Amino acid sequence: MESPSINTSKCVAEQKGRLACSTSFQKKSRSKLVSIPGTRPSVQNGQLIVSTGVTSLDYVIGGGLAVGTLLLIEEDEYDSYSRMLLKYFLAEGVVCGHNLFIASAKDHPDEILKELPAPILDDIASPRGGEEGQAKLYDSDSQDSMKIAWRYQNLPKVQTTLASSSRFGHYYDVSKTMDSEMRLDTKHKGFFLPDELSSNSATEPSQLNEGYRALLRSIQGVIHSEGFDGSISQNKSRNILRLGLHGLGSALWGDDICCKENFNGISSLTTFLYGLRALLRSSLSVGMVTVPSHLIQNREIMDRVVKLCDTAIALESFTGLERETNPLYKDYHGLLHVKQIPHLNCLVCEVPDTKDLAFKLKRKQFTIERLHLPPDLSDTVSRLSKPDLAESAKLLNIGCGSTATGKKHLDF
Amino acid sequence: MLLDIIQTSEGGGFIIIKDTVDCCGRQLLKGFINAALKREEAVHVLGFEVCEDEFRAGLDSRYTKGLCFHDGYTDPLGWTGCLPFTMHQFTALEINAHLNQSEPVKTVTLVIDSLSWMLQHYSPVVVCQRLQELRRGGALRSILVLLHSDLHQQGIVGSLCHLATAVILVSPGMSGQYTVAKTTRRTKSGKVTHEEECFNISEDLVVSIEAQSSSCNTVAESEDYEADPAANLTFNLRLSEVEREAKENLSLPFVFSQEKKSALLRPRPGAGRILYEPDANDDFDQEDPDDDLDV
């Protein structure tokens, strides 16, 4: 309890403090787990979360990925954007010093590792950005900067890019690849299916197909040997394991769900995901799986896969569709659907404030934004005139007020 | 873009020519082979659907020594025992052996005619895996495959096309003399391009593009058509230098200019600061705002 008489000087000091950092409020936390770099406790439920590498994606899924959970990405048709998300996820791991596990059946993990985008570190990027910005400002100042009545000068601009107030995660430059030194510093393990399969040929009967079994074994091996399951002694510094699994369910993994339409209740992929979940839940690891869902013929399997993952998002790119030329979408490269967000230690999950999300790939960055209509500047914009409004209001009243008595206005 | 793909010499390509019963893609396939032979590259064909003579017909005889036909047509399953090439040899190891026995290392294009035949005998999963294995093996420059897409389930065709770097769907054109090719190409960086072209194949198997498809044309036209609406006006929309200056000098009613703001904020001599020292009688309890009420 504070004493009732407050010194003015104290007040001033407090206010200054408030100006310096955005808030003086500090959360009381037992800093036991937070010591791992690149993690922080979630605002909603206190779970330890890591960034996906795309700041706007973090925002959409409620802050970040909780450690021990699995993120499903349903690939777009040509796998260009989902692959990019996977690379962001891995690059974030490299920057934070996490361990990586990369599995793929199509490209060798080392190739994926080589393509990781370069992080934009603030001290390098800001001066250049500033210059550009200034040049632009100068231009627009001389030409046609708008004079605005003072009341509106300080209104915040409408923000379409999604970002939380505090900084978490890094930004990356897609046009460049990461330094090789940086990559070499991180511990990583690759799993390339053709290599692994040729080495162990002993087959036991199982519901899992060979590829998935080898993968699960390999993941289990890494988790145990590196001590991500808590088997390591307390005093040694802990770390996070990031698993990036590419193209699960495609024919290259030896999975036939893309080719078969009938479904007898058991599929290797779902069995594998059960196992993977169990491994993740009991260890300091976080996974990202991409699945070519457009190839999977049976919706039932896909629904089960979504349920087995914690967070699920689907990418739908406009490439090759009519939508590419649609003026509504001209600023974007595709739509992003959030299919599922986990309920961790609570009854309700974080619900994104809008479901209309679109992504675009700028020259350097991949961002997710709210999809909104561009302003209609033509003369023929029809505005609801007063009588129209009255009409529609009446209609509304009839709709809502069927139980209300008389012709009174509904009072909300 | 079709010509581009035919001419291109970048390695690691996997090209699928998809055809249907309406329009055969074998002519285009031969056009590809012809172009490769003229570049003096080795072309190995796994032929299951037509016999060797029919396949060679039309190809330029001056260059055909680069072409090696592995005959899977006469005896695909090896029943007679004298096997030129059978289904069972469709593994990366066997094929590489076949490729090497003929010639010292050269850039090799592998042609499979057709993959549909292969899919009758192997499960699609196996076919996908073997193709990928061949691609990564490094012995081949590119793989060129004919696929009759209407014979298979959509999922199988989709899975195969998912692996390909370029997919060409041929369909009959409107007028009959041209064939329409819908090409989808994806680069290694993940960029995808689409194009629709009308092409024609001459007697000596040279592919020539007749026209960009109509849909492409209309898009381009509409872009060109966008004229400047402010070009021919009877009134003036633009400001001269003098006019702009005059406009800028005008002070608008609700705008805080820098001078006005500083004038308002500057401490004037008459205006005093408020000094307040709280003393013991001051009651500052924020907890209970109604403290001073007699209740």
From TrEMBL, chain A:
Query: Which CDD domains does this chain map to?
Result: Elp4
Family the UniProt entry places it in: Belongs to the ELP4 family.
What are the entry keywords?
Cytoplasm, Nucleus, tRNA processing
The major lineage groups are:
Eukaryota, Metazoa, Chordata, Craniata, Vertebrata
| Cellular component, GO, one term | transcription elongation factor complex
- Classify the source by domain of life: Eukaryota
Please identify the protein, giving its name as recorded: Elongator complex protein 4
Which Pfam families does the UniProt entry name for this protein? Answer: PAXNEB
Give the pathway annotation: tRNA modification; 5-methoxycarbonylmethyl-2-thiouridine-tRNA biosynthesis
Q: What does this protein do?
A: Component of the elongator complex which is required for multiple tRNA modifications, including mcm5U (5-methoxycarbonylmethyl uridine), mcm5s2U (5-methoxycarbonylmethyl-2-thiouridine), and ncm5U (5-carbamoylmethyl uridine). The elongator complex catalyzes the formation of carboxymethyluridine in the wobble base at position 34 in tRNAs.
UniProt GO BP: tRNA wobble uridine modification
The subcellular localization recorded is:
Cytoplasm; Nucleus
Q: Which InterPro entries does this one have?
A: Elongator_complex_protein_4, P-loop_NTPase
UniProtKB/TrEMBL annotation, chain B:
A Gene Ontology BP annotation from the UniProt entry: tRNA wobble uridine modification
Q: Which domain of life is it from?
A: Eukaryota
Cite the annotated pathway.
Answer: tRNA modification; 5-methoxycarbonylmethyl-2-thiouridine-tRNA biosynthesis
Entry-linked InterPro entries = Elp5 (IPR019519), P-loop_NTPase (IPR027417)
**Keyword Cytoplasm set for record:** yes
Composition-biased stretches, type Acidic residues, lie in: 279-295
Localization, UniProt: Cytoplasm; Nucleus
Q: Which Pfam families match?
A: Elong_Iki1 (PF10483)
The entry's cellular-component GO terms read: cytosol; elongator holoenzyme complex; nucleus
Q: Does the keyword Nucleus apply?
A: yes
* GO MF term set: tRNA binding
Protein name in the entry: Elongator complex protein 5
